[in-house]
UniProtKB/TrEMBL annotation:
Higher taxonomy: Bacteria, Pseudomonadati, Pseudomonadota, Alphaproteobacteria, Hyphomicrobiales
Entry superkingdom: Bacteria
Cell compartments where the protein resides: Periplasm
Annotated GO CC locations: ATP-binding cassette (ABC) transporter complex; outer membrane-bounded periplasmic space
Record's signal peptide: 1-33
Protein's name according to its UniProt entry: ABC transporter substrate-binding protein
Domain Solute-binding protein family as annotated: residue spans: 85-424
UniProt source species: Methylobacterium terricola
Keywords: Signal
Protein family (similarity comment): Belongs to the bacterial solute-binding protein 5 family.
SUPFAM superfamilies: Periplasmic binding protein-like II
InterPro entries the record matches: Peptide/Ni-bd, SBP_5, SBP_5_dom
Length: 542
């Protein structure tokens, strides 16, 4: 295992964060209250609260699917199987057998927003307009940046009647239900009430979700209360309140948990896990659809355009050593998907740790001791699904140096990295980086594969950050969209994953096990095999 030289951290920030946290919780009067759950997030700020949350999957977990619903939600009730789609604000969705671009959504009757206004088909159209129609009065660039790329299939939409919505896709697309599950419904009436200002809505948002926002202080806390009138009575939260606190540094999160300032932390520092367990804290983990990669630029001049270089980098990584370094809290990558996934297929390229083979490939590509490959990689200091990005990237940096790849890092805040990801590797915002460290949700065909690699989804049309364009891959994507029979679709998805691995399209490193450390007072939590979680069943023991 390589010896690690730590990237510089702002250590003084730890004390400032903890003192600020103590003050924030003291001001809420919740530090010793019962029926209140306090969570330390990895985000450095409160995610966007207006409907389409930012801060990646963590933002959607805490400020998205808590306060809001989509037409189609995720079933987060089970820990023993992967989450799948379930009816949300739509009770059903069907496709026209004579025209497989035409989807009909029947809406759930009797649903109201937190402000008391009714949810109906016009509200759905209004919410789609706020993301897709730049000339609509309610168009919000911030929400559009989060939501537009999630629904590239949408061509048009309309209210058929008060409880029916029709959405037409550009082409037949069997993945569309997974896309629309990202689009959350906020209240048109509340936007009017808040003076048609999204900044005002952020402080007093209104969705249809199981939680209501009752307090909001940027960079300090978000307070959520149980929505006792929630339409799904089985998911009315048992807690009185949930308080979310941004704590981007792992050591700060651990210290806050130890001191009793929070009850639960995301992504505890691996070296703190044994002592946390010894002190009586619970560590909860589970499989979930996640990978931790370097997304490689394929723009002109990028060294990653050479498949030999991409394969060399993948052969240079000691994944088992990294797992040991992380205290066992990882699953070494065997591909882009998790080992054993039904779409895994049978790739011919094996992600072994073979530095000599890596050196040979680099030599064939024109690199050697007198001509190392030098590149810059964009990374974050924390963030949703990013695990422990600074020490993990130090580990990779030394692995790669041993075979002749010299890596310099540009460290940016997580939300900044997301914005760079959306802008693309050709953008000036990429700062000359030829790769970025990014953790990905891989729970459906679109988010797992298509959005990363389809030719016409390069920025600004989508999030194909590296500008990868392979006509053979696009043909496979077309097959997925037009294959509505699940078994047949799986066979196509296996071919896609085989190509992802055999072409070494990413630096495929590891998969998270989503560790959370929490007080034994936290009862009833079921950790779903999902990026998202349901907080409704949780209670706090006295």
């Amino acid at each position: 295992m390589p010896r690690l030289t730590r990237l510089p951290l702002r250590r003084s920030a730890l004390g400032r964060t903890l003192s600020g946290l103590a003050l924030a919780l003291a001001l809420t009067g919740t530090a010793s209250a019962q029926g209140v759950l306090r969570i330390g997030m990895t985000a450095s700020d409160i995610p966007l609260t207006t409907g389409q949350a930012d801060n990646g999957g963590e933002g959607m977990r805490f400020a998205g699917y808590t306060v809001y619903d989509a037409l189609i939600n995720w079933d987060l009730s089970r820990a023993d199987k992967a989450s799948d789609l379930t009816p949300g604000l739509a009770t059903s969705w069907t496709i026209d057998p004579a025209d497989k671009t035409r989807w009909t959504f029947k809406l759930r009757p009797g649903v109201t927003f937190h402000d008391g206004s009714a949810f109906d088909a016009n509200a759905v159209v209004w919410n789609l307009d706020k993301l897709l129609k730049s000339d609509s009065p309610q168009f919000d660039p911030r929400q559009s940046a989060q939501g537009r790329t999630r629904i590239p299939a949408v061509a048009s939409y309309k209210a058929v009647d008060p409880m029916t919505v029709e959405i037409v896709t550009k082409n037949p697309d069997a993945t569309f239900p997974y896309q629309i599950a990202w689009i959350l419904m906020s209240s048109p009436a509340n936007w009017e009430k808040q003076g048609k200002s999204w900044d005002a809505v952020a402080k007093a948002p209104s969705g249809t979700g199981a939680w209501k926002v009752t307090g909001f202080v940027p960079r300090e806390r978000l307070e959520l209360a149980s929505n006792k009138e929630y339409w799904d009575k089985a998911r009315v939260p048992k807690l009185d309140k949930m308080v979310l606190v941004p704590l981007p540094e792992a050591n700060a999160r651990v210290a806050a948990l130890r001191s009793g300032q929070v009850d639960w932390i995301e992504a505890p520092a691996p070296d703190a896990v044994p002592s946390l367990k010894a002190a009586g804290f619970a560590l909860v983990t589970n499989l979930y659809p996640h990978n931790w990669t370097w997304h490689l630029s394929r723009a002109e001049g990028s060294p990653w355009n050479d498949v030999r270089v991409r394969k060399a980098a993948n052969l240079a990584i000691d994944r088992e050593g990294l797992k040991e370094f992380l205290g066992g809290l990882a699953t070494p990558a065997e591909g882009f998907l998790t080992p054993g996934h039904p779409w895994f297929g049978k790739p011919s390229f094996k992600l072994a740790y073979d530095p000599e083979a890596a050196k040979k490939l680099l030599k064939e590509a024109g690199y050697g001791p007198n001509k190392p490959l030098v590149t810059k990689v964009l990374i974050s200091a924390s963030g949703s699904g990013q695990m422990q990005p600074l020490p993990m990237n130090e580990f990779l940096q030394q692995n790669l140096a041993e075979v002749g790849i010299k890596v310099d890092y540009e460290v940016v805040e997580w939300n900044t990295l997301i914005n760079i990801w959306r802008a693309g590797s050709k953008s000036d915002s990429a700062r000359g980086g030829t790769a970025m460290n990014y953790s990905y949700l891989i729970q459906d065909p679109f988010t797992a594969f298509i959005r990363h690699a389809q030719c016409n989804l390069a920025p600004p049309n989508g999030t194909n950050w590296g500008y990868l364009c392979d006509p053979e891959m696009d043909k496979l994507f077309d097959q997925v969209r037009t294959t509505f029979e699940p078994k047949d679709q799986v066979a196509v998805l296996q071919k896609i994953h085989e190509k992802f691995v055999d072409d070494a399209l990413f630096l495929m490193v590891t998969h998270d096990v989503n560790p959370r450390a929490m007080s034994k007072k936290v009862q009833g939590f079921v950790q779903a095999q999902s990026w998202f979680q349901d907080f409704s069943p949780i209670t706090m023991a006295k």
